[in-house]
Amino acid sequence: MALTDPTINIATPSATNDQDPSGKPAAFYEARLSESKAALMELHSQIRIIAMGRLVAGLAILVCIYRLFRTFGALAWWLALVILLIIFIFLLRRSGDLQQQEAFESTRKKINEQELQGLNGQFETFDGGNGLASADHPFAFDLDLFGSRSLFQRMNRTVTIGGKITLAEYLASPSQNSVTIKGRQSMIGALERAPEWCQDFLITGSLNQEDPQDRKNIETWLAIPAAYFPSTGWKLLLTIMPSLTIIAWLLFIFGPFPAWPAIGLSLILLGITGKQAKTVNDSHQLISKRGDTLKKYHRLVALFLEQPFEEPALNELKRRLNTQQQGAGGFKKFVQLIAALDNRLNFIMNILLNGLLLWDLNCLYRIEHWKQIFKSQFGDWIQISSELDALISLATYNFNHPDYVTPLIVDKKSGNDPDFTLDITAGRHPLLFPEPSIPNSLYQSTDLNLYLITGANMAGKSTFLRMVGLNMVLAMSGANVAASAMRFTPVALYTSMRTNDSLFTHTSFFYAELKKLRWIMDQIKSGQPVYIMLDEILKGTNSRDQHLGSAALIKNIVQHKGRGLIATHDIELTSLADTYPQNIKNIAFEIDMQGDKMIFSYQYKEGVCQNMNASTLMKQMGII
User: How far apart are CA 452 and CA 429, in angstroms?
Assistant: First the structure.
C-alpha cells in the first residue's frame, strides 16, 4: 500500500508482519532441503559405483560368450554366463532404483527451494492459473484470483491436472454450504498436521508429467475390447508353449538332449509373436503413452492408503478405494505389467523373452485381465487423487501462514431473509504477504445493508475491499484467513471494481459497467444471499450523472435487502446514511497533512472523509 515514488511526500504507519520467515515453515523447508542435498551426494556416489559394476559385468559377459564359441559350450562357461547375467540384471535394476531415488530427492530439493522463495515473496515459479476463470466471472478479476501475483499462484501446489481444476473451483466457485466448508476445514487441518506426507505426495506427483488429454485417452483405451483375455485357447497356448520351451532348453544345457528341439520351439514362439506383432505394437503404443500417468496415480493412491489419518472424511475416501477391489493393488499390478512389456523395446531382451516365454502376449493377456477388473474404478481414482491434490495445496497454504486462523462458520437460518454475519477482527490483505500489512476489522450483521466508504486517493479503500473479499473466498474454500479472528455466513460474492471496455464486442467502458451492475442487481433481486463490493460506481460518466445514478442504485440495493461494501469519492452519497440510518453506515479512510507531507493510516474511522488529496498529489508530482 505504501508509495515508493520519490516525487510524492508521504508518510505511512509502521506495520509488522506476524509471519516470521525464520519461523516454523522456513525451519521445516530448510531441514528438508538439507536432507535432500545430503541424500543426493550419497546417491551420486552410489550411481557411479553401480555404473562401473555394470561395465565390468558387461565386459565379462562378452568374454564368456567368446569362450563359449571357442570351447563349444563348456558347462563352466555356461554357469559363469548365467551368474554374470544375474549380476548384470541385478545391477541394472539397482541402477534404476537409484535413479528413481535421485529423481525423488532432486524434486524434493526443488520443492523446498521454491517454498523458501515463496516465504520471501517470490512466487514466480508457481502456476498462476491463467485462463481458469472467464472475463465475466463474478469476482475473480477484481480480487486478483488468477494470473500473475494472484491468490491462486500463491496457493497452488497441485501436481495433477484434476487437482489444479479442483483447486480453481474451490476458489472461483466457493461453497455456501456450511457442512461442506466445515468438512473441508477438518480435512485440510489433518493434512496440515502431516507436512512431510503432503510434500511426499507433491514430489511423487511431480515425477511424472501429465498431458491434458491423458484422462480421456486412458478412458478410451480402457473401453477397447480385449484381443486375448479371457480366451481359453490363448490361455492354454500362453501357458503350455513357454513351459515346453524352457524344459527343452534346460534338458539341452544340463542333459544329453540335442539343441534342435529347444531351438525349434523358440522359433515357433517367435513366429507366433511375429504374427501378432501388429496387435502387440498397437496395444503397446496406446499403453506406453498413458503409462506414466497411470504410474503417477498408482503411487498417489498408494501413498494415501498407507498414511494413517484420524480425520473421518479422509478415511471415508480411503474406504471408497479399499472396498473397490484394492485400487492401489490394481494400479501396482498394472504398472508392473507395463514395465514388463517395455522390455520388448530392447532388441536382445525382445528375442530372448519372446523366444522363451511368449513375453509380449503374456503381458498383454494380463493387462487385458486388469482392464476388466479395474476399468470401472479409474474415475474414482482420478477424482480422489484430484481432491487430495487440491486439499494439500490449501493445507500447505495454511502451514505457510501459521498466523492465519480458521474462520467460524455461522449457519444461515430459515426464512425469506436469513440471518447474516460478517465479523473480521484485524483482517489483512492476503496478497501483501510477506510485506507488512495494516489490519482493519469489520462487523456487519443482518440489519446493516451497506458500508459507504469514502477516502482520499491511495488511502486504502480498494485494498480494504479486497482484504474483505479475499478473506471471504479463503474462508468459503476451507482455508485459513488473514485475520486474528473471523465469523461469517457463506454467501455468493459479486464485485464491480475494475471494468474493461472492448473494441471487439463494441462495448464501451460505461456500458460494460452498466451491464455488470444490472447483473449484480438481478442477483440481489433473486432473493439469494448475496454480498457485493463496488468501487467508484459509474466512473464512466460525468459527476452529476454519476451521483444521481449511484444514489438511485444504493437505494435500490437497500430496498431489495442487498448487502456489501461501496467505496466512493462522492461525499454527497454519504447523506443516504441519514435517510437509512439502520441500513447504511459511513466509514472513511482519512489522511492527515503535516505541511506538505501526507500521513496515511490505512485504517478506517467512522464517519465521512474530510480531506482529499488529488490536488496535493498533482502539485508534488509537478503536474500543476
Answer: 20
